[in-house]
Amino acid sequence: MEVILAFVIGGLFALAIYMLLRRSLVKLLIGLALLSHAANLLIFTAAKLTRGRPPVIGMETAALEPPFADPLPQALILTAIVISFGVMAFALALAFRAYRSVGTDDLDQMQSTDV
Amino acid sequence: MMLAISVLSGFGLAFAAPILSRRFGRAAGWILALLPAGLTLYFIGLLPSAAAARPAAFSAPWAPDLGLVFSFRADGLGLLFALLISGIGALVVTYTGGYLKGNPNLGKFYAWLLVFMAAMLGVALADNMILLFVFWELTSISSYILIGFEHERASARAAALQAFLVTGGGGLALLAGLLLLGSAGGTLELSALLGQGDVLRASPFYFPAVLLILLGAFTKSAQFPFHFWLPNAMEAPTPVSAYLHSATMVKAGIYLLARLGPVLNGTDVWVYAVGGVGAATMLVGGYLALSQTDLKRLLAYSTVSALGMLTLLIGLGSPHALEAAIVLLLAHGLYKGALFLVAGALDHETGTRDITQLGGLFSAMKLTAIAGGIAALSMAGLPPLFGFLSKELTYEAALEFGPWLAGAVVLAGLSFVFVAGVVGVGPFWGKQKQTPKSPHEAPLSMWLGPAILAGLSLLLGIFPNSISRFLISPAASGAIGESTSVKLALWHGVNPAFVLSVATILIGAGLFAARHPIRSGLSRFAWRWGPSFFYDRSLDALNALARGQTRLLQSGYLRFYLFAIILTVTGLAGFTLFTRGGLPVPVAVSEVRFYEAALALLILLAAFVATVSWSRLGAVAALGVAGYGVALIYLLFGAPDLAMTQFLIESLTVILFVLAFYHLPHFAQLSSRTARVRDGLIALLAGGLMTSLVLSAVDAQLHPSISGYFVENALPLAHGRNIVNVILVDFRGIDTMGEITVLGIAAIGVYALLKLHTDRKKDKKGGGE
To answer: Which among A28, A64, A92, A112 is the top mutation candidate for probing chain B, defined by the most B β-carbons within 10 Å of its own β-carbon?
Structure first.
């Protein structure tokens, strides 16, 4: 499964980077969203996959019985998901603002801050 | 401890100087001079222990693993420099009070002057070579700021930069040289290194180390062909010229050569490089001085010549030559410092420092004229002044090496006599000339300095043995490397040196009498292809290179920056990956289930649609599908928390996108087909690298994971059963706090961006078309 996910990650990165290289600001934002998916999956997969064993200690037991999924990358990704949402919201507001001010969403046309 | 404090005290006072200057106004110069004056007394108090070969020392660990020790040592050689620095420093600080009276930046000037003084004391007294280098660079920096003090003038800025680039570049070479020397000798402490001359001379590092150290010393001490920065540095206010660019800083290179001479000299490299460069500098400087008409530039070229003579004497390396160098060092500091200050007083009181416009000022400026006259006589080498002694010793030392060398030194001596006459005699005697300002005597603060220095030249000339035991002998011992006792006497009897001395004075006086034709004759041979020509060309070339690469790399197009980043990362990481490990094939992988493979395909497909879709809503919907697919992956592989968060955030993101896209334009085909193919290839390359990275990372476990700690302690320490949650809110609670802060800032940013919009609209409406 890791092999398949590796190709999914690579594909997501490729698509994200392709979108980041576009001149349209809107497409760039879609690229940003794809990039965060790709990065999160990268962390998730690189730590190895464990099917269906979340790192939660049952109410009756005092300790986890292996195998269980690694909790550390999960904590990292959880943080990353939330932060990327903050970035996304800010970027969208910025794009909206820039389009209103400059009147174009073409990055090549955005050469001065004056309207 | 006192020694370290004495060195560093100048830095402390520098902070207070602007406040003191504002508070005490004209008296500030006198008050600030108390520190250097006190330091002078303190250093005089250290002389007996240095003479007894028990120098005061201080040492504290700094970064011992790197061989860095915060250590100072006040031996005879260091103390001679320290006395010049603090003594002349005290006079220059008081002089500044008169010279820059009313200047709004006077406080800042005092501050940098004191920073320089402290740094220079550090150079003279540091025992650790890295510490010495740090102070060395500090002197370059303070020199840069002081030369460019009148920064409204472009020429002052250019001169400051030139001095800084030349001495700073040499400083880098010096650092490399000192490190080589340190690794050859096994220690960075000068006091420990000084016993290892034979080890160092046999070391393979000897040759490169000497070359690099010489580069540092030659640039700092304005040796040919790096001499050109010194006359240009005369853009600085005169107190700076007198202090940094004549008496002290330019002698830092001389100090270093004298300090390291005992362990480095005696080889052909040393004799020919140091002696040869010194002789060339001495003659070039002496020659160029003849045609100058600006008082300060004239003195600057003459300083270059004297620095060359010092370097030459150190290069010769015989005990007599080194003794002569020590005496010349002191004599030059006294008379040249005085002459610079006199030149400044002339400039200040008459409004010009062009020697063709100055004459007959004796009656107007008697005290300045007397001080200048005595200093000039010392420079010309007339008895009974200290300069005479110095010249006798120099001639004697040169005569040991044959008539050619003595001839060269005599030529420089002629130039000294000439310059002494032009500066110390010319402006004050002869026909009175019209000057821009009507001349009058300089204030007390401005004639006191030259008077004290000139008085010392006279006193030391008459009673030379008063300083030979405690000052000259210990300093000479430091330069020679073994204990020596120097006997100084005014009268040596009629010997070859005396004959040369008399001849020098007579011929020099003749040259001085013929100064006008000489000057106009020589000024026709101006140097167009001098070293400063190469300095200018290389500076231009450097700027052109910087402009070119900036234009190339800072194109202003986002995608080109991304190209640079992506291609660099892909190239470097890919190179390492494939040269170290080859194509990675993971071994321990979990089996594939049908619905999981379908899910993976779905994610890729959705992302692809999001990329190629022409409909904005379609793209956002596909983006949402991809996000939910990722969430399902989390769910399948034991991460329900992630899945929950991802579902929630993905929904919010889709809503946000839809809201924002409503206000944003439709997709348009902006890039050409070639550009899209190019971008696609780059993207594929980067994606391929990421795939290979994941494949090779799956099997790799370079460091033991810290997950075990969290798993074991979640229940006993944090009383939580969901380990991911425990990590976030307990073990790494502060990180989560930071995360919340980031979200808060993003929210404020979004709010501000949207709010700004409405305000702007109001403005437009209110502003009225």
So the answer is: A92
Spatial CB neighbours of B275, under 8 Å, sequence gap ≥ 6: B311, B312, B315, B316
Is there a single domain that holds both residue B763 and residue B618? no
- DSSP assignment of B30-86 equals HHHTHHHHHHHHHHHHHHHHHHTT--EEEEEEEEGGGTEEEEEEE-HHHHHHHHHHH
pLDDT for the residue B757: 53
Q: Report chain B residues whose CB lies below 8 A from the CB of A59.
A: 721
| Interchain pair B608, A64: CB under 8 A | no
Same domain, B508 and B423: yes
- Work out how many domains chain B is built from and give that number: 5
Contact B584, B696 (CB under 8 A): yes
Confidence of residue B769 (pLDDT cuts 50, 70, 90): very low
Same domain flag for B640 and B712: no
The answer to whether residues B344 and B284 belong to one domain is yes
Contact A52 B638 (CB under 8 A): yes
Instruction: Classify B440 as helix, strand or coil.
Output: coil
Our CA angle for B759, B764, B766, nearest 5°, is 90
Beta strands in chain A (DSSP E): none
Q: Work out the minimum CA distance from A60 to partner chain B, whole angstroms.
A: 11
Show the domain range for B600.
592-668
Query: Each residue of B75-132: pLDDT tens digit?
Result: 999 999 999 999 999 999 999 999 998 888 999 999 999 999 999 999 999 999 999 9
Q: Please give, rounded to a whole number of angstroms, the shortest distance from the CA of B152 to a CA of chain A.
A: 32
DSSP, residue by residue, B290-302:
HT--BHHHHHHHH
Computed on alpha carbons and rounded to an integer, the radius of gyration of chain B in Å comes to 36
Q: List CB contacts (< 8 A) between B663 and chain A.
A: 96, 99-100
In chain A, positions 1-60, which contact chain B (CB-CB < 8 Å)?
Answer: 1-30, 33-34, 37-38, 40-42, 44-46, 48-59
Look at A54-68, B71-85, B195-209, B332-346 and tell me which has the smallest mean pLDDT.
A54-68
One domain for residues B91 and B52: yes
Q: Does B544 touch chain A (CB under 8 A)?
A: no
Whether residues B680 and A18 touch (CB distance < 8 A) is answered with yes
Query: Is residue B319 domain-shared with residue B358, that is, in the same domain?
Result: yes
Task: Give the tokens for residue B163.
Answer: 């001095």
3-state secondary structure of B484: coil
> Which of B670, B749, B756 is nearest residue A23 as measured by Cβ atoms?
B670
Q: Please say if the pLDDT value at position B663 is more than 90.
A: no
Is residue B234 assigned to a domain?
Answer: yes
The closest of B252, B342, B257, B250 to B304, measured between CA atoms, is: B250
* Whether A109 contacts chain B with CB within 8 A: no
The rounded mean pLDDT for chain A is 88
Give how far B695 is from chain A: nearest CA, Å.
6
**At a CB cut-off of 8 Å and minimum separation 6, what does B415 contact?**
B285, B286, B287, B289, B290, B302, B305
Q: Is B598 on the interface with A (CB under 8 A)?
A: no
B87 and B105 share one domain: yes
Residue with tokens 């007339």: B382
Chain A residues inside the 8 Å CB shell of B690: 9-10, 13, 38, 42
In chain A the domains, ranked by start, together with CATH numbers, are: 2-50+67-108 (1.10.287.3510)
